[in-house]
């Protein structure tokens, strides 16, 4: 224990406790300056994390009670085959629907952005000649704010969980933390959408829509649902970036601790179907049916041909850019962290949130307009220009304002133009100014009460300074021609910046490779992401981890802290434990469940050896949710005796109640009934995993994490219950700068 | 139990028991007709599975005894950081060396193949005019047989484990089965090489070379070694196909059951370094230093440009081709299965094996020559022909024999030319005949006593009939031009055939995508592999699984058979168990270890409650290997008392003995010493995982598989040992056509 140097309180909880009742947006969303597709669709639905409901853990270990075993034993081989086939069907459906949603979003955003930019463009053109461009600025700012207001109102007032990119929430869900309403009907960025679709489809019903199709009832438990949510998240990534393999790796990296070949294969299937669906419908929309050339929502264009291959001596440069990305990423994260703390303290009322979002939108428009206005970087308009809305402004005829291609455009298009435009399209000053302003705007934006991610803004910042690096290299070296392609450096810069912010590794490499359609850049991208992660981790954690920490959820990492062999189950466990007898008085159960001071979710079941004075021994484990269903159906020993024909409780009854079991307060138990007895034998998990008290923390951790447990019973050598280890007991320990630290989590 | 319909004996054991002493090559290698790189390098070293030494299990669960915990607790945070860094260094080294080996192999094979084909070509050209081509045939056959003889002699007489592709062996190793000498110095196909390099480097010593560098001693245990072997296998795949992501997925699909983000990232690092090293040195060899354009040994050429994108209506065609691949793959596997059985029965003497290999080589040359001789498919020699050794034979000047491009070439080149040659390069008859003959030759070849895989031959067969399909489609449809590119169908055919034979899924898709450098073919390849797997699985298992089964090793699949909820730990476990007391007589321990009839590897340690009549309770688990080290160092209670200064046994002593602990017979224990006592407290794992008797088989299986256990103690509710579950107990149950079947494994 000597290693535990201090107790640190997780920074946010203490401050926001007063405001918790109002639904403080602990994890806020972000808006991308200039209204990327996500922002513009923020009105299109939602959910959000509130601090009101304490998060629960999920149970990724099957509850093997007698009912479950009976059902499994009754099932024939064909039954299992059918189940397997329905899993595939569900995954196919998830992929299809996710692709469809992506397609819908793409088209709507395309249209909205088109209208907005067209209106502003015409207005600017009108007033460039006659003077009075301040009216154009006003129009732009008002248009921006109005769209954002719509999105922010929905998020802030109705579904706060739709804020942000949804990635931290999905990470938590796959880790085993139930964030209320995280997978209910909503729409946000694609990853989250995919997960929501998955949760809906796989359960064969929707609580939000109050429909139950009576199908897929077998899948109504945490284990199965998690698998489908993994598939959904993968399908989402796949649709967003046209990166099916990247999607699978994302799901695995963030979620599944136990890797299963068939599951992975199904996840891959969902991802593929999702890309394919998107591709297919977009090809119809673009009047080229069957051409399948739109792999993802975000298309970086293809890097092809030998002209862009890199050379060995460029690798140190790439690594240096990775380090820059790590530094800038760390700066971004620190700034955003302070901003988030500030928001938690002062900007927690919905109306304030909406106002902040509108302010950001207006400021973004103003800054963009100012930058464009004062820029004198004019470029000739090529015959096959990629700029959708070229602004002439004060440039000569046949030329356009280069700053406007970066600011007056959807971010995806800006990234694409930074990657692929001819050398000389941008001058260095434009890129430098753009990077600087956009960096702070993006940082301010992430955490707003709108539904938007950090991926595209990061890529855009990185592409801008990356391209700048490329141009500078070409300028300072004697033989500039060997650095012919600044687009290559834009790609590396984009990877470095994104890696420095989110700190994803394998999956991000693959996503970047798939999104650019070029395998040869795999090694440089990997090296860059690795460098960015190492450099960034030296200063501060990744953005998603920061936001997860601010939520103070008991997130379990991959391994126990390295120096935690000092600790054993004895020190880690919660003790004493509330145990129930195998045949227990209803009153005791009701009182135990109603005890708000403990609010436990799992109870070891013990049995006394008849005619002996020994303390009772462990014989099973039962969950709060199961007890509630038992109480609701009044499964009492006395009643069973009197009503012989009473229908036996089945697994179906538990499934129907899943996942929103009623609270104990809603169940009425009369004074007579309180004297009845309940026999838990059939319903408890008779073979819970146990560990002895001397088990070291890493060993407990490994068991817990590998099997996705929720409760682990600690027993002595006589098989008597001495404690219970839950997720919060394990998540407390944390490797800080001064060795092992013990954190105080909410309600430990 | 009603579901267990019959007991089946694994087909091979019974038959070969008589020959086991001779080292029957249960798992034989293959040769690719026409001496691909692997075959030609078969002389370049080896290892092999012998039936003599029974395979053991590996222990992927840390042995947490007091020594281990003390060491971990003494280690500072910096110590763990250093360990982490050395893991990265080791992975980098593994990648580097694997890449180097791949490079070396590539150059040597290139040279050898060059010489061979040049000599034969000149000879053929000489005799085409004057007649007497039979001499050329003879020359070719003799050259082939000579090279194969060299390889086969080394494999058959010295290192039989080098036979085959090495994939089944690595699969087993990662699954947790120790196949003697599987990771000792040898060379075979790249995957195996990578694994061997990893095992050598990570241990900081080589038993084969008898050198101990006294570094990386911490890594001398099964868990760490497995992680490095995973990295090595990935690096091997990566070098072979230029597919770093595919390599990682291969390792994960076949190996790691517990997915760890950092580990995966390290594996990816090794893969990347390996591709990069290969690429770098090959670019120097090809006089284009720094150009990095040779991603892998096997290069399919890049599919690029819009001309080769597929269309929606082609997807059903692709799926149909997948089904054909599944059928042909199943046929291939069935034929090879019969052949392997035949070999196990009749071709088990090394000299017979060498003769068979030579026969195959000679027949291959003869058949190839005959095909070329009678072919009248002449094609004009283009200006930038990809054929390295164009044979004119009886064609007009400026033309070459098309059959010869398929037969008279290294298989990689043949595949490449099938993928990329202009439409019209092959006529359908040539392709049809080639497919037919090559199919049977390849089938005969896999399982020979040479070191070669099935990947390239499968791809070649598939590419041939795939291209044939493409040509036929162009012929029968009115507007042939839309099927312009038969190369696309060759790719799909190759994927279908390979998928039908090996039944790999996700990793194979990614490998194919990376090797072709084109992301857009991801979906068709996935659909094709899926169809091939579904169709093939209907008839027979994958080739690797067939060979693993023929070895009768206790291979654990991902999940317990679906219908095994009937079984509980009570039925599955081995019982009664040989237990040791915590303080045990040396004589008892020696007798227990010497008992050849049981030959257990793990023993529960029990302790009697003092002054009570109750049966003893479980207090730990100790391994045979640990006991042997203890006996060797004479760690007896009496000696410790007399020699107070005696050095305390440390973890180092166990590590030095790892992994080849001496047999019990080699340890001399005098009659006096037999009366001494040994105190196991410090050395046993005091917190072994346990399960109650009622635990269902799937639950036991999940625990066992997820944590990579070797022994799982079954206890009753008083914590008394009632049984022990080992890998073999779990691997016995198998889902057959008639429900759950119980297999008889060797020495269950």
TrEMBL record, chains A, B:
<keyword id="KW-0677">Repeat</keyword>
<keyword id="KW-1133">Transmembrane helix</keyword>
<dbReference type="InterPro" id="IPR000644">
    <property type="entry name" value="CBS_dom"/>
</dbReference>
<dbReference type="GO" id="GO:0005765">
    <property type="term" value="C:lysosomal membrane"/>
</dbReference>
<feature type="transmembrane region" description="Helical">
    <location>
        <begin position="455"/>
        <end position="477"/>
    </location>
</feature>
<dbReference type="Pfam" id="PF00654">
    <property type="entry name" value="Voltage_CLC"/>
</dbReference>
<feature type="transmembrane region" description="Helical">
    <location>
        <begin position="489"/>
        <end position="513"/>
    </location>
</feature>
<feature type="transmembrane region" description="Helical">
    <location>
        <begin position="429"/>
        <end position="449"/>
    </location>
</feature>
<dbReference type="Pfam" id="PF00571">
    <property type="entry name" value="CBS"/>
</dbReference>
<dbReference type="GO" id="GO:0062158">
    <property type="term" value="F:chloride:proton antiporter activity"/>
</dbReference>
<feature type="transmembrane region" description="Helical">
    <location>
        <begin position="519"/>
        <end position="540"/>
    </location>
</feature>
<feature type="domain" description="CBS">
    <location>
        <begin position="684"/>
        <end position="742"/>
    </location>
</feature>
<dbReference type="InterPro" id="IPR051280">
    <property type="entry name" value="Cl-channel/antiporter"/>
</dbReference>
<keyword id="KW-0868">Chloride</keyword>
<keyword id="KW-0472">Membrane</keyword>
<feature type="transmembrane region" description="Helical">
    <location>
        <begin position="130"/>
        <end position="158"/>
    </location>
</feature>
<feature type="transmembrane region" description="Helical">
    <location>
        <begin position="228"/>
        <end position="251"/>
    </location>
</feature>
<keyword id="KW-0812">Transmembrane</keyword>
<dbReference type="InterPro" id="IPR002249">
    <property type="entry name" value="CIC-7"/>
</dbReference>
<dbReference type="InterPro" id="IPR046342">
    <property type="entry name" value="CBS_dom_sf"/>
</dbReference>
<dbReference type="InterPro" id="IPR001807">
    <property type="entry name" value="ClC"/>
</dbReference>
<comment type="similarity">
    <text>Belongs to the chloride channel (TC 2.A.49) family.</text>
</comment>
<feature type="transmembrane region" description="Helical">
    <location>
        <begin position="351"/>
        <end position="374"/>
    </location>
</feature>
<protein>
    <recommendedName>
        <fullName>Chloride channel protein</fullName>
    </recommendedName>
</protein>
<feature type="transmembrane region" description="Helical">
    <location>
        <begin position="85"/>
        <end position="109"/>
    </location>
</feature>
<feature type="transmembrane region" description="Helical">
    <location>
        <begin position="263"/>
        <end position="285"/>
    </location>
</feature>
<keyword id="KW-0813">Transport</keyword>
<keyword id="KW-0129">CBS domain</keyword>
<keyword id="KW-0406">Ion transport</keyword>
<dbReference type="GO" id="GO:0005254">
    <property type="term" value="F:chloride channel activity"/>
</dbReference>
<dbReference type="InterPro" id="IPR014743">
    <property type="entry name" value="Cl-channel_core"/>
</dbReference>
<feature type="compositionally biased region" description="Polar residues">
    <location>
        <begin position="1"/>
        <end position="12"/>
    </location>
</feature>
<feature type="transmembrane region" description="Helical">
    <location>
        <begin position="315"/>
        <end position="339"/>
    </location>
</feature>
<feature type="region of interest" description="Disordered">
    <location>
        <begin position="1"/>
        <end position="33"/>
    </location>
</feature>
